[in-house]
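agent> Task received from the user: take the single chain below, predict its 3D structure, and emit structure tokens. No templates, no multimer pairing.
agent> Plan: (1) validate residues, (2) run structure prediction, (3) serialize to tokens, (4) report one or two observations.
agent> Step 1 OK, no nonstandard residues flagged.
tool_call: predict_structure(input=
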Amino acid sequence: MDIGIEKVDTHEGMTVKVLLDSGATGMFMDREMAKRHSFKMTKLERPLKVKNVDGTENSGGNITHQIEVNVFYKSHVERMRMDVCNLGKTEVILGMPWLQAHNPEINWEMGKVKITRCPPLCGRNLAVKENIEQRKKIGKKIRNVEKADRDEWEWKMEEKFDEEIELDREKVKEMVP
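)
tool_result: status=success, residues=177
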């Protein structure tokens, strides 16, 4: 799944591949990716041990830093902190805490993810406490994404309306001799 992430300090945005992982205990960004894109990393007071899915210790060692980003997916927007560690070929992992909080609707056959049950804290409206110019830039991105969602919804409603009209016609045919 692709998501947009934006640096909090410079508002530089990019699209990244994300892995939704119910076995992961947090949200993570690959260390090399964070360095390559010059994310502002905050050192943790205490390092955190990180283990791979097979129980072995991660080759990149402990988690020593976090980053803070704005995350965009369709009309969903939120600010989050991610632990920085070695993820190999994976750029970002959203683990169980994120999955539990958002409870996304996942269609595995179609490869579609809908975020329709957001908690109030993440909000579909970005609550970034920064200057007004930065809010306007972010707001424009959100409006563009929301317009795309609204267009898709209108198309689906028209399709549903056409189906209902056809059902009504068939009922009338059955009633008229």
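agent> Step 4: summary for the user.
The beta strands are 2-7, 13-20, 27-30, 42-48, 63-73, 76-85, 92-94, 105-107, 112-114.
agent> Done.
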